[in-house]
Fold these 2 entries.
Entry 1:
Amino acid sequence: MSNNNDMKNVKDKLHTISPPSEVDLAIERGMAKGRVLRRNRKVFVRSTLTAAAIFILLITSIRVSPTFASALSEIPILNKLVEIVVHDDNLRTAIENDFIVPVDATANAHGIMVDIEGVIVDESRLVIFYSLIDRGSERKDGEIRDIMLHNQNGNGIEAVYSYWGRYDFTEQEIWRDTIEISFPLEGKVPETLKMGFQFLEDSVADGNDPFPWELTIDIPHEAFEELTQEFEVNKTIMIENQEIYIHEVIIYPTKTAVVYEYSEENEYEIYDLKDIVLVDGAGNEWSRVSGGMIGFGAGEDGKRVLFLDSLHFDGVPDELYLKGSKISALPKDKDSVIIDTIENKMLSGPSNMKIDTLVITDKMITLEYTLTELALDDNPNRYNLLSSQIYNEKGVEVKTEGSSAISSEEEVQPDSFSFNERFHFAEKLEDRYLHFTFYYYPNYLEQPWRIKIK
């Protein structure tokens, strides 16, 4: 920058960009984390949904129907898989309460059988339990490349879905996993789901038919109709003068949705409601979900959704409250990082963020940075904080091909935490000033609150 006024002009332009919604690029975060965990799920968005309206946990647990649990128990690798996935307590509870519907649908092609064994479904999501079975396939290892999902009219469904899909028939003949399909509030569960599978390798894909494995599932609406319970709230909570409006709470059999929005007048950019829980009159609590879809970011109406554990099978109590005390947030004039790619330095960012190493090449930027002055219990324990939504000084998004992160092994001070993030760009970098946004930051505002739901 030639002077302070020039830098202020750049910052003013960049701060007119709407930052990502709450944890809205957790797809990238999940993929980076998944690489460390060696088991990342693929995520796809269908219809009008956008990545900026989604935040998701990509690592989900393997849960099975009692009808084939005994078969799963014989798989030697099951224990290893369970160790590296995030357990979904809500699916486990649903299974324990027989809230799983057996399905018998199979498709055979190229020596691989796809077998749909059961589904768990309510108005918020559809979880499909499937197996891949070796029937003489030439290629013994690979993964599902894509899954086609159409409704009874042959149209795509408005939903987000994720799956793992890897197999290695040299280790075992049957591989089981789940496909999770999450529906937004305005989405509808189809009457019939038409599915098509495509595998990664051309050797198992049919050039004339991109989805050689096709199946049809009749969705058992009778299993969940009239089970959703909605409670209007329409109350505002205040945390250090920051307004959050709670619209409603919706209890599904497999999760609870809290619908809310942030005031545009807030002086802070809010990233997360850290400790929000449902609590009954006896003090029993239902907290954030531990697996699967964790919420939707702001839609056109500004409404957001976060998911808590379901209390459906516990029974909705006579007394129910929503409470919390802590939010993750940054002042709006410090809610991003501005990099000068020519001077190779950070021009603007949070006051406790220090750039240790900045390496810029034609199509890649590597950022190593340290956060200081963290309380001992504020260690973020995350691999990355920056989203891969990056803008130039004109406010135009710079196309990226993804990002990755490495967990630091270096010793740091008790009140510090180090990060190493790498951003890959689709084209050679031509812009001098780049604006990096956060999807999360370990800076907190605290003020206890509680509101009555019923």
Entry 2:
Amino acid sequence: MKPTDSLVEVRPHVYVSKHDPGYYRKVVHYHPLSADAHYEYALYLFKEGQVNSGFRHMKMASSLHHRQATHWVNQQRTSSLPPTPPKKFPWLLTCLLLLALLAFLVAAGLLALSTIQWFDSRHTVSHVTSESVFERHASTELEAISPHPRPMGTPTEADVLPVLMVQNAAERYEQMHGAYPSTDQLIGDFPNNHLSFLPSGTAYTLSDQGYDLSSSPAVLPRSLTQSDLLELHYYPTPNVVTLERGGEVLVTYPVASGPKPPPTSTVLTRVVEPLGSNGAYGSKALALEDGYAIHGTNDPSSIGSYETGGCLRMHDADIDNLFSYVAIGTPFISEPEGLTPPYATFGKSLPTLAESDQQSKQEKSELSFSWKH
């Protein structure tokens, strides 16, 4: 196929039409570390009314140092209101809105004047001014706003987590390999242990449409929204790692880190006891790109410090808690300095998942790991 003005080459000999409804999503799929791709996709999602998904891609663009995205994200972080998309009003629409506002104010003024005249005619006086009513209303609204508001939408429930864990693994596998995995491919031996196990009560099977995924009890349809896949985030100022979906923070863990935050990347491998049962890397590790990793430690007193060589250390209990949920291919996003995560739905620990008989048989490795410890 020859390229034309309406086609964009996303990979050698692979083209996407600009007229394709899924154009922006596909560009992000083929260029997951392109700041411009995530920024343009975010604007498209905002236009379509998908605010949470747009916010997620705007944050991704910001983490990849997109100037406009960073400015917008910082504005949202300093605001106590839920995230709103960047507004682009056409000039004519702006004029119409201003005229409508002016007409409303004139009508309200006339109504107020007639009301005052009616009260005067009855020789009554009202001591409740419009200012006092506004102040009381504003005070009530401010009291209802949390300093760290949850994202818009229903918070994730514990029953949904097993499905989210498997869904994330299947979708990340497809992003890497171009096809959805079988169960055996999901829970293979190291280094193909995309998951450690399938949660008890969760059924995953391949189908003509991709895959079928269910659990007991039933899960809300929102739980199967692809734009709400799991992501790891690191916030350098409070020195914490979070697991998030669609802008919602599920859990927050304290970590030890280095003077320079790890770059945005993805989870490459999952390892159990990378240096033995009492090694410096602790009980488990999620290896990232460029020699970085999120791992446990045999020095728990270091948690909270900035003394590592670049890796993120966690308490062994915390990495054990997180490890089961995070599949190979899950994005790791390093947030800008100065940001703090919102309220975490599950606080400082995720619910422990019940394991089924379907699980990886070997997650240890004979390889010698040398990360930026």
